[in-house]
Amino acid sequence: MMTNTVEAEGQLTPEEQKRLTADMHRSLRRKKFRALFLVAPLLIFIMVTFVAPIISMLYRSVDNPQVLEYMPNTSAALADWDGQEIPDEATFAALVKDLAEGRKNHTIGKAATRLNYERSKMRSLITGTARKAGRLKPPYKDKVIKIKAGWADIDTWKIIKRESKSLTASYYIAAFDMETTPDGEIKMLPEKERVYFKMLWRTVWMSVLITLLTLLLGYPVSYLLASLPMRTANTLMILVLLPFWTSLLVRTSSWIALLQGQGVINDILVWFGLVNDDNRLSMIYNATGTVITMTHILLPFMILPLYSVMKTIPPSYMRAARSLGATPFTAFFRVYLPQSVPGISAGAILVFILAIGYYITPALVGGQTGQFIGNMIAYHMQGSLNWGLAAALGVILLVLVMGIYALYSRIVGNNNQMTLR
């Protein structure tokens, strides 16, 4: 009787409710799997081209297999060494065995190079001894020291023991312009030998300067494009996009021709009498050349976000402000500029992130004072082959950018838009 009453009122029985709930869950699961299947190619692409390289870089910045892998007997012999005096005969025997096998297998050079990062002349010490190690007979200690006196230096053995671990912080220590003494003390390098911190600071402030210059130059252009009729604006937009149709290398090379001592700009200044022919401006192969060239190259990346936001601001807002008695200056700063803040923030973060990681332009026009940290990373990857230090510098740059972005997002975020008053 009660069941018939419930069914008559149109309500579901408990069994029907369970079946309906199960059907809804199955439907939601199918939709989730379908959505996952559609985005799977993008996720795989991101994992392979972005996440995996970052993980590899993080690991390589602390990975330290060379000494442990290519001098295994020496590493094992030094594990219990107290570091108070030169190791015993057994350790020297292990060293000779490693050097002889490493030279035969052409692997000892990798361990020697790794140790040379920690102390100069370690490579010559190891490779020089390895050439004669195969002919040595026991006892080894005095014979090895006779070949290379550096083996009598207790600091040599301390460095080998320290770098016999599979993981190391040495690369990060070097990236912060510090060094580890043989006794394990970490200290700053002499002022003249500090390179990376200065270059990192230069990269940050020059990137900020380039971002500000692109904003100062791009804001009026974007305002003009947003205010003109669509046909005229589209024609001018082609001029803004025109640099994208030209190779970056060609654009950078063009600025070399313009900015050099005998270049076009200096010739014009001399012709107008603004600069003496004997005192032409130095605008290339320095920080000035880098700032000018990168400002031009990155300017479209500021204009496009600004234009996309300004185009959505109704012109009637400015007219309404003027009709209420505001001057053009007041109407712009109180009405128009606050509404363009999303475009400013998007363009600024885009230009800054592109600038801080730039490599080609500073390499071509930067000289010694206009190089970025990216150029030093490339040098260690291609020149010195110190991939661990390059990875450490890359991680520091990544953390710095993420920190700046987090601070920027907190100050100018979707939920904290600046209000100019």
The major sheet is characterized as: 2 strands, antiparallel
- Overall radius of gyration: 32 Å
Which term fits the overall shape?
A: flat
Distance between the termini: 72 Å
What's the architecture of the largest domain in CATH terms? Orthogonal Bundle
> What is the CATH C level class of the largest domain, in words?
Mainly Alpha
The structure class reads mainly alpha
Low-confidence stretches: 1-8, 415-421
CATH T-level topology of the largest domain? MetI-like fold
Q: How many structurally independent domains?
A: 3
Strand content: under 5%
Average pLDDT, all residues = 89
Number of strands: 2
H-E order? HHHHHHHHHHEEHHHHHHHHHHH
Helix content: 55-70%
Enumerate how many helices there are, as a single number.
21
How would you name the CATH homologous superfamily of the largest domain? MetI-like
Instruction: Give the neighbour order of strands across the main sheet.
Output: 1-2
Q: What would your notes on this structure say?
A:
The structure is a single chain. This protein has 421 residues and is mostly helical. It has three domains: 26-57; 66-166, no CATH class; 196-411, MetI-like fold (Orthogonal Bundle), CATH 1.10.3720.10. It is built from 21 helices and two strands. A two-stranded antiparallel sheet has the order 1-2. Strand 1 (178-180) and strand 2 (186-188) form a beta hairpin. Helix 4 (72-78) packs antiparallel against helix 5, helix 6 packs antiparallel against helix 7 and helix 15 (287-310) runs antiparallel to helix 18. It is flat and about 100 Å long. The relative contact order is 0.08. Mean pLDDT is 89; it is low at 1-8 and 415-421.
